[in-house]
């Protein structure tokens, strides 16, 4: 069986990471959450006052990018991969509203993207990887053997994020989350550098149309065809 690269792109909270994690586990591939990497850079900016009112101090950040070390380590309790920033586990912090509200402008900075793309490509050497994000099938791995583009309405996605955050005990407003989802969609699709778009050879999946079981079955079928 071939070791392939699976690229899963789509809007925030459209269910792509659930799909990507499931597939990676099922077939014994590495899973990389590329959004977590942009979130970790954003946390670095917030902690070092490099972003204010949604504006990134690109001059200072560029000088300090060499201080940003991102890694993924498997958590022995959960079996999942956690994101580390300079040796510290930041998995929970990068999912909170403060990072979510500031991540799009950071992810739009060209030198941040170049650094993350280099790192993402290094993870993909040799194949056997599932990576999700916005530009995986278009920029990071344009030759990926399997590309998926996942879509779902902004309301469905905001509800998912609301459920996730309230389950963790965060007090959040649905309207704020919906606004954040819509703003991020806009920035992700309209930035100059690697905007979110469907790769010509990607398969589009509307996440609202299938049950998880149907989706997984479908995914496994395509995966098996591509790795034959
Ligand atoms: O998937 P997510 O919501 O965790 O992503 C966080 C942010 O990072 C999102 O606003 C878009 C950006 N992102 C990106 O620009 N490119 C990627 N490959 C992954 C995420």
What's the arrangement of secondary structure elements?
Elements: E1 5-10, H1 16-27, E2 30-33, H2 34-47, E3 51-52, E4 55-56, H3 58-64, E5 70-74, E6 81-85, E7 88-89, H4 97-107, H5 110-124, E8 129-133, H6 136-140, E9 146-151, H7 154-167, H8 174-190, E10 203-206, H9 212-227
Parallel strand pairs: 1-8, 1-9, 2-8, 9-10
Antiparallel strand pairs: 3-4, 5-6, 6-7
This protein binds 2'-deoxycytidine-5'-monophosphate.
Describe this structure as you would to a colleague:
The protein has 228 residues and is α/β, with parallel strands linked by helices. It has a single domain (5-223), classed as Rossmann fold (3-Layer(aba) Sandwich), CATH 3.40.50. Helices cover 49% and strands 18% of the residues. It has helices at residues 16-27, 34-47, 58-64, 97-107, 110-124, 136-140, 154-167, 174-190, 212-227; strands spanning 5-10, 30-33, 51-52, 55-56, 70-74, 81-85, 88-89, 129-133, 146-151, 203-206. The strands form three sheets. It has a five-stranded parallel sheet, with helices on both faces. Strands 5-6-7 form a three-stranded antiparallel sheet, with helices on one face. The longest helix is centred in the last third of the chain and has 17 residues, at 174-190. The termini are close together. The mean pLDDT is 93. Residues 12, 34-35, 38-39, 103-104, 107, 133-136, 184, 188 line the site of 2'-deoxycytidine-5'-monophosphate.
């Amino acid at each position: 069986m071939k070791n392939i690269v699976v690229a899963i792109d789509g809007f925030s909270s459209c269910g792509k990471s659930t799909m990507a994690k499931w597939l990676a586990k099922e077939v014994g591939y590495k899973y990389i959450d590329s959004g977590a990497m942009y979130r970790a850079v954003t946390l670095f900016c917030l902690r070092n006052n490099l972003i204010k009112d949604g504006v990134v101090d690109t001059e200072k950040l560029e000088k300090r990018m060499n201080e940003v070390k991102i890694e993924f380590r498997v958590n022995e309790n959960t079996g999942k991969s956690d994101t580390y920033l300079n040796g510290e586990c930041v998995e929970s912090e990068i999912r909170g509203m403060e990072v979510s509200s500031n991540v799009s402008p950071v992810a739009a900075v060209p030198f941040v993207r170049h650094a993350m793309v280099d790192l993402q490509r290094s993870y993909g050497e040799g194949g056997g990887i599932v990576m999700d994000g916005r530009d995986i099938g278009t920029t990071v791995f344009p030759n990926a053997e399997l590309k998926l583009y996942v879509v779902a309405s902004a309301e469905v996605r905001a509800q998912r994020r609301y459920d996730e955050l309230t389950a963790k005990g965060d007090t959040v407003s649905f309207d704020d989350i919906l606004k954040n989802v819509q703003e991020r969609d806009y920035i992700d699709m309209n930035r100059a550098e690697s905007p979110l778009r469907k790769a010509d050879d990607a398969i589009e999946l509307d996440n609202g149309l299938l049950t998880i079981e149907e989706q997984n079955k479908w995914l496994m079928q395509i995966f098996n065809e591509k790795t034959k």
